[in-house]
């Protein structure tokens, strides 16, 4: 009789979890919208990708420089009307690595607002969604632990004991495992990747590549290395058997550095 009670409680909990996860994933979405470059970036890498895309655009536009010794830093007098870019520029008033600026601003109000806008469109899940699912999962785990404890205290054998142990392990492993995108969001992301949905700002391939795949696909290798490591690759690593190489005396500047006269060229 006790086993029947436990199984009933578990069945109700699991049914509620499945229903909640399904409701979140299948949240209705409107088709009447146009995504910005940062909203598109959120679909592919959430808040971290939004900050990376902002950094890429600011470097590309010459508002942020990559320094040899310490990483990324704002160019004096640089400004932007975009709230995400403005927040990142403010944070780069002192030199930082890419990891430092992402960590500092991924939870900023401006970046979180991008996700909130997508959630309002039914394209992504929210922190509240994840908290709700997590709460239901832990409720199931607590019931399972109670079942295990009572069974052991009474010294009785129960066929449901194995089920209870499995439920605890399952809950611990995926308690907060809610996908960041809804089904509609995944469909839009796939259409953006295929090029069937136009995104303003993606005509700049640098912005598009970073938004879709991350800063490691920024086209300038020197800027990438400075952003991640605080220094460019060595001249030996960049040269190919006695060809010409270029360097800046103080800055690696923006991505245009590799092709503009702001870098001095030297031939070996």
Any overview of this molecule?
The structure is a single chain. With 268 residues, this protein is mainly alpha-helical. It folds into two domains: 1-29 and 126-178; 31-125 and 199-237 and 245-257, no CATH class. The protein has eleven helices and four strands, in the order ααββαααααααααββ. It is elongated, with a radius of gyration of 25 Å. The protein starts with a helix and ends with a strand.
Beginning-to-end CA distance, first to last residue = 86 Å
Oligomer: single chain
Biggest sheet overview: 2 strands, antiparallel
Label the structural class. Answer: mainly alpha
Portion of residues within helices: 55-70%
- Number of separate structural domains: 2
**Content of β-strand:** 5-15%
Globally, the shape reads elongated
Strands in their spatial order, largest beta sheet: 1-2
Compressed to H and E, one letter per element, the order equals HHEEHHHHHHHHHEE
How many runs of DSSP E, i.e. beta strands? 4
Average per-residue pLDDT, rounded, comes to 77
């Amino acid at each position: 009789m006790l086993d029947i009670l436990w199984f009933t409680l578990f069945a109700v909990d699991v049914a509620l979890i499945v229903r909640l996860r399904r409701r979140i994933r299948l949240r209705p979405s409107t088709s009447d919208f146009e995504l910005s470059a940062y909203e598109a970036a959120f679909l592919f890498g959430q808040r971290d990708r939004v900050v990376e895309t902002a950094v890429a655009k600011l470097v590309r536009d010459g508002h942020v420089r990559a320094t040899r010794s310490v990483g990324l830093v704002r160019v004096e007098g640089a400004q932007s009307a975009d709230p995400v870019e403005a927040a990142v520029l403010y944070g780069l008033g002192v030199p930082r690595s890419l990891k430092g600026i992402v960590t500092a601003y991924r939870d900023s109000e401006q970046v979180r607002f991008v996700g909130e806008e997508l959630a309002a469109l039914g394209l992504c899940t929210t922190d509240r969604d994840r908290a709700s699912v997590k709460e239901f999962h832990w409720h199931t785990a607590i019931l399972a632990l109670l079942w295990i404890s009572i069974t052991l205290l009474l010294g009785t054998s129960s066929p449901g004991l194995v089920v209870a142990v499995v439920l605890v392990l399952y809950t611990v492993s995926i308690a907060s495992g809610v996908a960041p995108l809804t089904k509609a969001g995944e469909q839009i992301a796939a259409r953006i990747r295929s090029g069937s949905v136009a995104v303003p700002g993606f005509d700049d391939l640098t912005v598009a590549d970073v938004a879709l795949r991350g800063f490691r696909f920024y086209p300038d290798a020197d800027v990438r290395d400075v952003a991640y490591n605080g220094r460019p690759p060595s001249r030996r690593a960049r040269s190919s058997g006695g060809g010409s190489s270029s360097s800046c005396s103080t800055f690696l500047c923006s991505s245009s550095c590799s092709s503009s006269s702001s870098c001095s060229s030297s031939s070996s």
